[in-house]
Amino acid sequence: VTELRALQQQLSQSEEELRIQAESIPQQIWTARPDGMVDFYNHRTAAYLGKQMDEHEAPDWLSFVHPDDRASVQARWETAIAGQRYYEAEFRLRRYDGEYRWFAVDTVPVTNDQGEIVRIYGSATDIHDLHTMNTVLEARVEDRTQRLTDLNSELRTLATASSEEINEPLRRLRGFLHLLEGRVAEHLDVKTRRYFDLVQGEAVRAERLAEDFKALGYLEHRDLKPVLVPLVTLVLQVRSDLAPRLVRQTATWSVGPLPVVTGDAMLLRQAFTELLHHCLKLVPEGNKAQVEVN
Asked: What is the separation of C-alpha 105 from the centre of its chain, rounded to a whole number of angstroms?
């Protein structure tokens, strides 16, 4: 009998120490029975809810959960109990004055040697200010993203319209140059022929730039079309595309060996064109460029 009383006293003392610790923690602390019914919560929880713990009546804690969160919270809670798993969630709890605030809730099930739940310990941490700040930041990011999307749309429209306005006189210019060349070709000396070729090359370059502007909107909304692309063939095509842009520059090319890759042929061609063109622009005018792609 003496040993039994000593054990009961130790148990009571342990429970009292646990309650003291629970009351001293700056969080909402609570415990629940194996069926999920709350049987204890600390004074911080009581002060927040405006409801003292009733020894004869288990509180309906779900009634304090925001109506929009209640169904998902209950479903996850029941699933966690049935599976004897940890429970983590973020949801809104009603304060004594009717205001709902966001909390991060964590629970830990304690099991016996048979793996059965004997007690559930839980905590709730007020994250309302952090959640509100995140919501405001997300709204700002979404707003700025939408503004950028609208701006990009306007730029695409402007690029398409500008491309058409630029291309039309360029096509006429090239046509007139072709007619003029037919009339005076026999009378052109070497220097004049070079100037004539420079003008034609610049017209072609300007026309290609205008087409690149026009392609901006098309490429953004175009679905990727992955195919097998032999890079050697693609680089040779790019070299041909770049030739009109290099009328003032000479270059020797060394291409290969290169693999066959899977990708969008049009986008790969554009990427290689921009990359190689920018590299060639770094070579001072009048110097010979050595281009190696391997």
From this structure: 27
